[in-house]
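Q: Convert this sequence to structure tokens.
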Amino acid sequence: MSIDTATAAKVAKLARIRVEEDDLPALAQEFNTILGFIEQLNEVDVEGVEPMVSVTPMRLKRRIDEVTDGNQQDKVLSNAPDAREGFFAVPKVVE
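A:
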């Protein structure tokens, strides 16, 4: 796959990046270089290779999935400009 300057301009526009007309050939070449690297990665045989979390073998740390209030209600509400009955109080916006 090859990227031309028109495609590079379209990608820049979609990414909301202003690229001068003179810089489009260099950008297209950079895109082609990146796609070349991706093609090289696609050639690697990864059959039987398990996904890794890290470069060192380790198991993911697990915790019990339980819902709690965090026991920090007073601490959280201390930052609120107005709190009533254990909740944030906000101005009424709907009549």
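DSSP finds three helices and two strands in the chain.
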